Amino acid sequence: MKKFAFLGPRGTFSEEAARLMTAHLEASYYPYPTIIDALKAAASEEVDFGIVPLENSIEGTVNLTLDWLINEVEMPILAELALPISQHLLVARNEVPLPFSAITKVLSHPHAVAQCHRFLKEHLPQAEIEYTNSTALAAQMVGSHPEERWAAIGNRLNTEIYPLMFAQQNIQDYSNNYTRFVLVGKQQISLLPSDVEKTTILVTLPEDFPGALHQVLAAFAWRKINLSRIESRPTKKGLGSYYFVIDIEQKMDDVLLPGAFAEIEALGCQVRPLGTYPRYIHMITC
């Protein structure tokens, strides 16, 4: 039985992603208090794999995840799941939900709060915002303090795990709200087939080559290799020094990608593969 770490406590979107991505396996799931703790557990092989958020369609990259995979360990991305995210305002279970005007504090993960910015500004301008390590931790805190006039932003599963009820459902600002979760680990794993494969690389540019990034992109362009994402992250060596993380819309092959990488390295750039992997999309069902 394989062991999977996820951002806990129980009831997070990360747990949902973990269970969906590994439903075909005999698996056990272990919550960790932070993304870094889950990644460290996989890197040290305390568990076999970790499943963590990488990017949200509204708030962008989860920099904590990306920077740790770049700077702290060489642990490949093995799979990706795009999961639809619905955020709900949750309050302690009672005969009547706590009215918006009585709520003094809203707790949740920073990304969840940002995804509901307009709702909070319009309906809960008086409420203090308190950030937590996960949406499920916020739900756990609100459920364990029913005497407080608090609310949490979290998912539907939280109402089944903790003594909570809905004050308002679907409070996210945009309906097309997805988060990319990645499966990482040092071992091989049997995965379901997918029609979509991706490759992610890290490119470091030479400091004395003006126009190097243009030349890097040209190596893909003339080969008609599609790139879905390019993002810069600081190397932490000084201002103006960046890595470039590039998502390529195909799996590693024997000709096209090795040829592109060789051309890029001939420019004096460094190319580090971060993974070639299947991509899954979990569709919303009614």
From TrEMBL:
Gene Ontology MF annotations: prephenate dehydratase activity
EC number in record: 4.2.1.51
Biochemical pathway: Amino-acid biosynthesis; L-phenylalanine biosynthesis; phenylpyruvate from prephenate: step 1/1
Keyword Lyase: yes
Enzymatic reactions: prephenate + H(+) = 3-phenylpyruvate + CO2 + H2O
Site description Essential for prephenate dehydratase activity, residues in chain: T179
GO process annotations (BP): L-phenylalanine biosynthetic process
Sequence ranges assigned to domain Prephenate dehydratase in this UniProt record: 3-186
Keyword terms of this UniProt record: Amino-acid biosynthesis, Aromatic amino acid biosynthesis, Lyase, Phenylalanine biosynthesis
One of the Pfam families matching this protein, by short name: ACT
SUPFAM superfamilies reported in the protein's UniProt record: ACT-like (SSF55021), Periplasmic binding protein-like II (SSF53850)
Any single GO CC term annotated in Swiss-Prot or TrEMBL for this entry: cytoplasm
Every ACT domain range: 201-278
Residue runs in coiled coils: none
Ranges that cross the membrane: none
The protein's name in its UniProt record: Prephenate dehydratase
Lineage: Bacteria, Bacillati, Bacillota, Bacilli, Bacillales
